[in-house]
Amino acid sequence: MRKLVMSFLAVVCMVSMFAGSVQASSNETTATWLWDPALLVREEANVLAFMEQKGINKVYVQIDASFGQQVYRSFISKAGAKGIQVYALDGAPAWATRGGRAPMVAMLDWVKKYQASAKADEKFAGVHLDVEPYIHPHWVSKQREIITNYQKLLLDAKALAKQIDLPLEADIPFWFDEINYRTTYGRGNLAEWVIANTDGATIMAYRDTAALIYAFSKQELDYATKYGKKLSIGVETMWSAEGNQVSFSEEGEAYMHGELQKVREQAVTSPGFGGFAIHHFDSWRNMKQ
């Protein structure tokens, strides 16, 4: 009987390890993107329960002013009680154009007014931008101009966020370290520039094997270490038309946790390693176990 009990407990521990949190320590971020704030209206309790189950301690929540402040106040206060930081999320490729700054300013103006009226436990913990300028149709033909506008956007956003005492983070693709810029802001490596000029970054290392995820993130981890920043390593759970190698959607959550543990074992030696970010809430919640 004792052997049976011990075997049962061993199985339970293994299942819990794979089905639960990807978080390894209290100093490590386990983040996700929540793009649909309507979920906070329809099923706030379910959203919070899932995040608690998975050990999520940071969530980037899309800002949609049409939902009103109370939706965000309710969620942030309840998330905070569970140890989850909430960052205001927004961004679009058009923001990296000459006239694209206005939506960013409007978004941060909304956050500024929100912070001013919110109680201490209802306030956002930071701002997270997902601009992805390379999706803009002029990225190839006018890359220098787009990059210049993108750099200006991030610097302006950081200054505005600082006015309301919030850190600014940004998403970057894993291949930004292959882009060398020569703009108004000097010359250098674009991945390094973004990491140096924001308070934190998430690298979208969207592959489904530990070897590739770590390989794609290593240079950015070095940059983060150099500038005293923290880099979150992002992975995909949503099906991708780019091929099966991009997302964990085909393999499932248990496989994903196994690969992320392998990444952690290599990345944890870097002072710039900040944890993982799983894209995104809905697809993660619905992926096979």
UniProtKB/TrEMBL annotation:
It comes from the Bacteria. Keywords: Signal. Residues 1-24 form the signal peptide. This is Amidase. It comes from Paenalkalicoccus suaedae.
